Prior knowledge:
The mean pLDDT is 97.
Amino acid sequence: xxxxxxxxxxxxxxxxxxxxxGIGSAMAEAFAAHGGELILVDLDAxxxxxxxxxxxxxxxxxxxxxxDAASIATLAAAVGPVDVLCNNAGMIEAGPYLEQxxxxxxxxxxxxxxxxxxxxxxxxxxxxxxxSGVIVNTASQLxxxxxxxxxxxxxxxxxxxxFTKSTAAEWAPHGVRVVALAPGRTLTxxxxxxxxxxxxxSEALKxxxxxxxxxxxxxxxxxxxxxxxxxxxxxxETLVADGGYVLL
Length: 248
Ligand SMILES: NC(=O)c1ccc[n+]([C@@H]2O[C@H](COP(=O)([O-])OP(=O)(O)OC[C@H]3O[C@@H](n4cnc5c(N)ncnc54)[C@H](O)[C@@H]3O)[C@@H](O)[C@H]2O)c1
């Protein structure tokens, strides 16, 4: 008989990247509230230090740069064994593709695709060796729809979906689950510029049947579920949480 969902992370070390951001900080709070020992990492050292201070004695923090392979390797060596990786840090630079410089395009792919792949490579190696672990990658609804003005970002996030499936297939036999979360439009610092005016918000809502934006807490709850034993048979899947978004 099922008496309750198993969402307990007591004794598990949870690494959240982009933990200074909207969704990442909510993930960190959610895992901490469910017993996890948090390792908060971000480019913004001051912000993760501050958040770690609010999450109790078990929480630690590190600064790293997801665009830099050496920084990612240093981080992975510093954090030690990890039970859950929320591979969540990301950035967006929007604009018509023909107006984006080659450097910008490469930077988006470096941060939103290559960096998470390299971090998963380092952390996943330890998980496979120990025979347990869960990686929750953060993709995006745009992985499935594409978007004018977000070509490089959507491409990177589509890559994360296939990366999730492929590593899931390789590592499931070793007791490691890899899954992904694809948020829709969620109110965070990342979307603040795109949803700043009433006109921007009402235009965006035309495409969302739920008629509202997602919250950072809604995304964090799904990451918690995906990483938990309640989702123990979910392998390689990307959970889309977008209020029914469609490109109308
Ligand atoms: N907010 C949305 O509507 C939305 C929708 C779909 C997907 N996402 C994805 O969710 C994730 C979290 O986004 P968010 O909305 O919380 O954004 P956010 O901007 O609030 O947070 C992103 C965090 O990533 C960190 N970061 C950026 N570049 C970094 C780098 N080079 N090295 C290390 N850390 C870096 C930032 O410092 C920030 O703390 C991202 O992967 C984003 O692409 C967000």
